[in-house]
Design goal:
Strand order of the largest sheet: 14-13-15-18-16-17
Structural class: alpha/beta
Radius of gyration: 26 Å
Number of domains: 2
Shape: elongated
Distance between the termini: 39 Å
Strand content: 15-25%
Number of helices: 20
């Protein structure tokens, strides 16, 4: 009888242990302090932003409340002059805006945009109030106006290029642009306006120019970039992932414990937020009306980047209290992997090329491409993602050795107490006909049972997605999966030594399929 009792208890303990790693991970609430800056209209929200950041100001920047590009490109000028950005209608200065100008004690107003966005009546209203004759920075359209603002700010060897027909990307980088006083130029998706091209050409002729392109091919195509020689693109799967990528890019320059949360939808309330965020060296994150998108949740929950408090810009019609509750941790966001921390390890890098293909392709390039894409997809599902490398470098510090490299990758995962670790590789063998996909786990790992289950999930879904022969799940003592303290797998996506698979492994289409398969495997392991 006693034997039966202990068998039953043992079975129940095992079942509980099994369910513990098979069921979906519960999101770790953010538990952030929140507040809100808002007004009845976008004009009023901008006034409240001004009151939050400025007690006094010699100069005020005035932009149209409905014409978003002007206010966004003004963020660097705002920081340079320590001037808040206020909004008004084209027909004249709103009475409350004039009250705010007087409260600030400003004597100078700079109008951004031509007569179509801020009429001559606006100028008359300013002069009739006893202020100096306003300065107007304007061009024929938003592209030329952005050029004129850029000339006024003066580039210090860096320029930002964003789409001039949509607002989210320029808004996402406005705080960074402001604090670094980097001008923002605007372009169309498929062709570059003459004014933008002229300014870029002029800046290149003056010396080395670094261009930061915000957004993917759909909003700023490579074809528009022409002869630009030093280009860094910050882009994600969508506007929210792009904003999250900007958040990570800018964290060394924007170190405030406060983050401003703005809408990524079609509302103008956030137009003045970039100026305030830049003044306070604060980051900007982006939300939907009633939800925290996965990439936003990810950056706000990453330990090294997490803010202490979040200030929501705009009223309930813009960002609901449901989002506020998600920030405070009283409600869970609707993201499949919210609260899950995943370390993505693109194998090799830097001096270690990894395996070589028959035509000279490098394993390290293939693993990095898959790793970056996988990180973006996981963030879109709400996971907090850490890459062991995001470019062609080794994570090892000091003198390079293979062991120091492997230890550095393992340390990243263990120090972060990650929930999952996935290392990406290409296989190689002396027989070029050898083919297929393999996923490894280590039986010597402290969590070997979970790692094996994780490997089975990844292998089955990856093979479905990329349609290569399955070589199965195998046990191996690879350093990074043996010494990590969380479920860990090493994936050999295909054989770079096989001429057919070599071409596949460097193909963006195949890489996307591999990413989807690994992603589905992670979801499967988490119970979906």
């Amino acid at each position: 009888m006693a034997k039966l009792k202990w068998s039953f208890l043992g079975m129940m303990l095992f079942l509980g242990f099994w369910l513990g790693f098979q069921n979906p991970a519960q999101a770790s609430p953010l538990a952030l302090a929140t507040s809100r800056i808002s007004g009845v209209r976008q004009i009023d929200t901008a006034i409240e932003v001004s009151k939050t950041g400025w007690q006094l100001a010699d100069t005020v920047i005035l932009a149209n409340c409905d014409h978003f590009p002007d206010a966004l490109v003004a963020a660097p000028l705002s920081h340079q002059l320590d001037a808040p950005i206020l909004l008004t209608s084209a027909e004249g200065i709103d009475a409350k805006v004039m009250e705010e100008i007087k409260r600030l004690g400003a004597k100078q107003v700079i109008l951004i945009g031509g007569q179509a966005v801020l009429s001559s009546q606006v100028e008359s209203d300013i002069e009739n109030a006893g202020l100096n004759k306003p300065e107007r920075i304007a061009g024929y359209d938003q592209y030329e106006t952005a050029q004129k603002v850029a000339e006024r700010v003066e580039s210090k060897g860096q320029i930002i290029l964003a789409n001039g027909e949509q607002f989210p990307d320029a808004l996402a980088i406005s705080a960074y642009a402001g604090v670094t006083e980097t001008p923002i130029l605007l372009t169309r998706a498929k062709n570059m306006p003459a004014a933008t091209h002229q300014e870029l050409t002029s800046l290149q002729q003056k010396g080395d120019l670094e261009t930061i392109v915000v957004g993917g091919e759909a909003v700023v195509s490579d074809a528009t970039l022409g002869s630009l020689t030093s280009v860094q693109r910050i882009a994600g799967y969508d506007r929210y992932d792009t904003a999250a990528q900007v958040y990570e890019f800018a964290r060394d320059d924007l170190t405030s414990p406060t983050t401003y949360l703005v809408t990524g939808e079609n509302f103008p309330d956030a137009l003045a937020a970039g100026a305030l965020a830049a003044k306070q060296h604060a980051e900007i994150a982006m939300a939907q009306k009633a939800n925290l998108p996965g990439p936003t949740y990810s950056v706000l929950s990453t330990p090294t980047e997490s803010p202490v408090n979040v200030v929501i810009i705009g009223g309930l019609a813009v960002v609901t209290d449901q989002v506020k509750a998600m920030l405070e941790g009283t409600m869970q966001p609707t993201n499949l992997l919210a609260g899950v921390t995943i370390v993505v390890d693109p194998g090799h890098g830097g001096p270690d090329t990894g395996a070589l293909g028959a035509t000279g392709t490098y394993e390290k390039n293939n693993t990095l491409a898959i790793g970056l894409n996988l990180a973006g997809m996981l963030r879109s599902a709400g996971a907090s993602v850490i890459l062991t490398r995001s470019k062609d470098v080794t994570p090892a510090v000091g003198t390079y050795s293979e062991l120091s490299d492997l230890k550095a990758r393992t340390k990243i995962a263990n120090d972060l107490k990650a929930d999952l670790f996935i290392s990406l590789h290409n296989d190689s063998y002396s027989n070029p006909a050898t083919t297929g996909t393999t996923t490894y786990y280590s039986s010597d790992s402290s969590v070997a049972v979970q790692s094996k289950a994780f490997a089975n999930c990844v292998q089955s879904e990856l093979v479905k997605s990329i349609a290569l022969p399955s070589r199965g799940v195998k046990d191996a003592n690879f350093y990074v999966i043996k010494n990590t303290k969380m479920p860990a797998v090493l994936v050999e996506v295909g054989f770079i030594s096989n001429p057919v698979e070599e071409k596949l492994l460097e193909s963006p289409d195949f890489q996307s399929k591999a990413v989807m398969g690994i992603y589905q495997g992670i979801l499967k392991f988490n119970g979906y």
